[in-house]
Amino acid sequence: MRNLKNDFAEAVKKMLDSKTLDKITVTDIVNDCKVSRQAFYYHFSDIYDIIEWIFKQETEYALEKHRNIETWQIGYCNLLNWLKDNRSLVINTYKSIQREYIENFMYHVLFTYINQVVEEQAKGFNVSSDQKEFVTKYFTLSFNGIALDWIRNGMKEEPEKIVKNIEVLVRGDFKKALEKMHAENLREIKG
User: What domains does the chain contain, in order, with CATH numbers?
Assistant: First the structure.
């Protein structure tokens, strides 16, 4: 049986090889797939919905087994490699008038990913949910900013080099940040 979601996704990816997302219409997609507009709207609410579906499907796979302190580097490198392998999709989505879509998507993906690392590292520390969320946001903004700058500059640098540089900078820092929060909480308790 035909998987229309995948067909629509492939059509969008193919179109993004030659034009930005804001130049693609639902009519273009359904004509390419030889189906009705109703078929498209049965699966997706709009073009951005299909872009979100593509990104979620593929980035989830890249990150799925690497949400811990030992392998976060592999997951982040997998994500950057997926972005690079899908350069047209990423760049032409980023260059469209909906740039913030990719920025928000990347933030959300990285927040969820980094939060699992922070939760793992927080075991045994007296830190609140708000403090763990703050640490997660701190690292998410850093990782996201680096990835977006890399996209903005044409994805020239190899993902492995980026990840190695980040790993050198943040080695031990997830735990160190939580230790500092823990120590501050203990000081406040003692008065």
Answer: 54-190 (1.10.357.10)
Give the residue-averaged pLDDT of 106-126.
Answer: 92
- Specify the range with the lowest mean pLDDT, choosing from 2-6, 37-41, 42-46, 141-145: 2-6
Give the residue among 136, 161, 169 at the shortest CA–CA distance from 80: 161
